Amino acid sequence: MKNQEKGSKLYLFSIVLVAVLGGLLFGYDTAVISGAEKGLQAFFLNAADFVYTDGMHGVTCSSALIGCIIGSAISGFFATRFGRKRSLFLAGVMFFLSALGSYYPEFLFFEYGKPGVSLLWAFNAYRVLGGIGVGLASAICPMYIAEVAPSNMRGTLVSWNQFAIIFGQLVVYFVNFLILGEHTNPVIEKIGEGLYAVSASSDPWTIATGWRYMFGSEAFVAGLFTILVCFVPESPRYLAIVGKDSQALKVLSRINGSKVAQTILAEIRSTVEVRSERLFSFGMMVIFVGVMLSVFQQAVGINAVLYYAPRIFESMNMGDPMMQTVIMGIVNISFTLVAVFTVDRLGRKPLLIWGSIGMAVGAAGVALSNLVAVPPVVPVVSIMVYSACFMFSWGPICWVLIAEIFPNSIRGAAVAVAVAFQWIFNFIVSSTFVPMYNIELGAMGVRFGHMFVYALYGVICVLAAVFVYKLVPETKGKTLEDMTAFWSKRRNK
């Protein structure tokens, strides 16, 4: 009876914990390539029926992002048609099948261990399947958390999803490090423009087996998430949208208490009476802001750093690149906690603006270190600063805003559009990083590419700060229904 009157935080935290497992899988799936990509490259460089180029490797490393674009684009349809819970279950199944398929892409159709163009297509198909799961989870996990969370805790709880993403990346960095063990990444030698070969001194285990274990390790977490999501309730706001008020009230009562639940349900019903509203019913600006939040989150270049971290640290010639990648993961997760514990006190905009400025400084440090002679520790620390500033700002806060900024009646479709743009730019940034990073020019050689790519990201970080200051509304302390009223007034001006 007491829980019915006051609600149960334990119940709220338990269902949020299951939802953030989807975020953990998101991070795990997108970052697993960082440890596996060199072994994977060496494996396909040994193919007899085609030449595996630098461009092909960039696309292979980014192929999951194609699925992410698809998954995020269809997330609005699935979330609206089948509900948030069933969509998350489907994402879990896709994660699981992708992990097993990436581990053993030869399944049924190909000879084990024999690289070829057909096997490359099969491997990428499994990665795309996992990417669809990531796309669904990336849109629906924060949406689900935002729709179950009380307004005074929503920023913190949605930020835990980003914490889970970064924790998933840290876990996979560590898992990749343990899998590699005493083995070493293969040595890739350049033999022409965009062409590479595997050095004879390379560790054969890493080429044949190591990358498989890295991809396959995801199946354990994916299976757990798929099972647990069966036991969480459907989002009360989705239940209200589809007319299941009694079920919505039951969930709201367990979270907020019976008296507060009645009020919340009445507010929800007042904002979802028109279920057929079109995407631009509240004007162009709300969609533009949501899309540009996603664009800037990726255009600042963070995922190029996360996906290719070992390669970047190797180029800096300071210690073990895999260990430095693990250290960066620890730094990332530590600074994500800064956002978790301050987003509902400091607000969304200040964290985004200061994070953008910090990232610009870090990117500038890396760029300058390729123009003048500095100790290797300077670019390493600059990369850490750049990454850390992203983790307390654009990493979690972008997801918080995308989950809460849209009106109830268009949230499913609007989040899908915004997140689709996020994955499109993720793919653009990730697939162009290696070619830009390897640009050679005059006496500077490849250092020009290293300088250029981080100078470009630094400029984009400055533009991101200006965008937030000028156009992004502060949502701290506002209910999801308040945002409906805000955009309605904005539209009518």
Average pLDDT rating: 82
> How would you describe the shape?
globular
Annotation field: number of helices: 21
- Helix coverage percent of residues? over 70%
Elements, N to C (H/E) = HHHHHHEEHHHHHHHHHHHHHHH
What is this structure, in a nutshell?
This protein is mainly alpha-helical. The chain contains 21 helices and two strands. The longest helix is centred in the first third of the chain and has 37 residues, at 9-45.
Give the SSE map:
Layout: H1 2-6, H2 9-45, H3 54-81, H4 84-103, H5 117-148, H6 154-180, E1 188-192, E2 195-198, H7 204-216, H8 218-228, H9 236-241, H10 245-256, H11 258-271, H12 284-299, H13 302-307, H14 309-315, H15 321-346, H16 348-369, H17 377-391, H18 394-404, H19 411-437, H20 447-471, H21 480-492
Description:
- This protein is mostly helical and 493 residues long.
- The chain is built from 21 helices and two strands.
- Strands 1-2 form a two-stranded antiparallel ribbon.
- A hairpin with a 2-residue loop joins strand 1 and strand 2.
- Helix 2 packs antiparallel against helix 3 and helix 5 crosses helix 19.
- The radius of gyration is 23 Å and the shape is globular.
- It starts with a helix and ends with a helix.
- 55% of the residues are buried.
- The model has no long low-confidence stretch (mean pLDDT 82).
